[in-house]
UniProtKB/TrEMBL annotation:
InterPro entries linked to this entry: UDP-glycosyltransf_plant (IPR050481), UDP_glucos_trans (IPR002213)
Coiled-coil region: none
Keyword Glycosyltransferase: yes
Keywords in alphabetical order: Glycosyltransferase, Transferase
Stated name of the protein: UDP-glycosyltransferase 708D1
Keyword NAD: no
Similarity annotation: Belongs to the UDP-glycosyltransferase family.
Pfam entry (one): UDPGT
Domain of life from the UniProt record: Eukaryota
MF annotations from Gene Ontology: UDP-glucosyltransferase activity
Length: 344
């Protein structure tokens, strides 16, 4: 970058959970690769040590390009929320503290080219982003089909007014431009995370059976490194979009078992793309009890299905081509950077 060229300066605001933090930092790293400057606004305290360590490693990797600023969260009154799950509490704490982002952004000495933030913070951040002199962008950590549903939600609500927020949603949702309808989903309340040892959760008998055949890990692990190991021949996943993307990147067939949120839509993408299977008859979250024999049969089906392996391999090649030198990802990033420079 020449001295006369404007500096592209981006501010990123992630939300709670590694599933939200990882795509945020990966996106930031893409722009850093092309000489952009980044201000990373990090909600503190983080909800987990894994998040804190990941942020520290990221900042240390780009010491001359990244400035980290803490967003000191306002303590949440537990009597004002109906959950005791630490991640949901952190989501809500961040949402109620985002008005503090405005003075942080206004204090930056280098003019901002764009403000990029997590999808979970859209509504509380609107009063802030409306007053910015730079464009704001949302990083959407779900399939494009889920984004289409979000975009069409207001149309559904307007055409079918009702007292209950979901009264206008039938068994399936038809969206213009999407050939097959989206199955109705509901949000399952996340269970409380207890500080228990694995034997307390799974039972000593199961742990003894697993001991000689595999490994049970409670703490955060680098999932992509595990999926990239040549010994891994399949992946049983909850259908989280990050997990699916990582499996596709490594060319690993997927058995998707969605639990809540956008995971049914993500599982549909797994099935229609041919990289995995989704046993819809297993239900949704804790809706049904699935017997071990059924699970074993589906795992065997996934592992023995050569067409899944071939398709997963082709998707791996396509993903790496798109993210490689001269790929579509590079072209999009460069085009966006040039637009910001022209508008500086």
């Amino acid at each position: 970058m020449s001295a006369s060229e404007p500096v592209v300066h981006l501010a990123f605001l992630p939300s709670a959970g590694m599933g939200h933090l990882n795509p945020c930092l990966r996106t930031a790293a893409l722009f850093l690769r092309y000489g952009c400057k980044v201000t990373l606004i990090t909600p503190k305290p983080t909800v987990s040590l894994a998040e804190s360590n990941h942020i520290s490693r990221f900042c240390a990797s780009f010491p001359n390009q990244v400035t980290q600023i803490d967003l000191n969260l306002i303590p949440l009154d537990p009597t004002t929320v109906n959950s005791d799950d630490p991640f949901w509490l952190q989501f809500e704490t961040i949402r109620r503290s985002v008005h503090l982002v405005a003075p942080i952004l206004s204090s930056l000495t280098t003019p901002l080219s764009a403000f990029i933030y997590d999808v979970s913070l859209i509504s509380p951040l609107l009063p802030v982003t409306e007053k910015l002199s730079c464009p704001s962008y949302i990083y959407f950590i779900a399939p494009a089909r889920m984004f289409s549903f979000f975009a069409h939600l207001s149309v559904l609500a307007a055409s079918n007014p009702g007292e209950h927020p979901s009264s206008f949603i039938g068994d399936v949702i038809k969206i213009p431009g999407i050939a097959s309808p989206i199955p109705r989903s509901s949000l399952k309340v996340v269970d409380r995370e207890e500080e228990e040892v694995l034997e307390d959760v799974l039972g000593s008998e199961l742990m003894d059976k697993v001991k000689e055949k595999g490994m049970v890990v409670k703490d955060y692990v680098k999932q992509m490194e595990i999926l990239g190991h040549p010994a891994v021949g399949g992946f049983v996943s909850h259908g989280g979009w990050n997990s699916i993307i990582e499996a596709v990147w490594e060319g690993v067939p997927i058995l998707s078992w969605p639990q809540h949120g956008d995971q049914k839509i993500a599982s549909e993408a797994v099935r229609t793309s041919g990289v995995g299977i989704w046993p819809e008859e297993w239900g949704w979250g804790a809706q049904d009890v699935v017997k071990g024999k059924e699970i074993a049969n589906k795992i065997k089906e996934m592992m023995s299905n050569e067409s899944l392996r071939v398709k997963a391999g082709k998707m791996k090649e396509a993903a790496r081509k798109a993210a490689g030198v001269g790929g579509s990802c590079e072209l999009i990033i460069k085009r966006q950077i040039e637009e910001w420079k022209r508008n500086a």
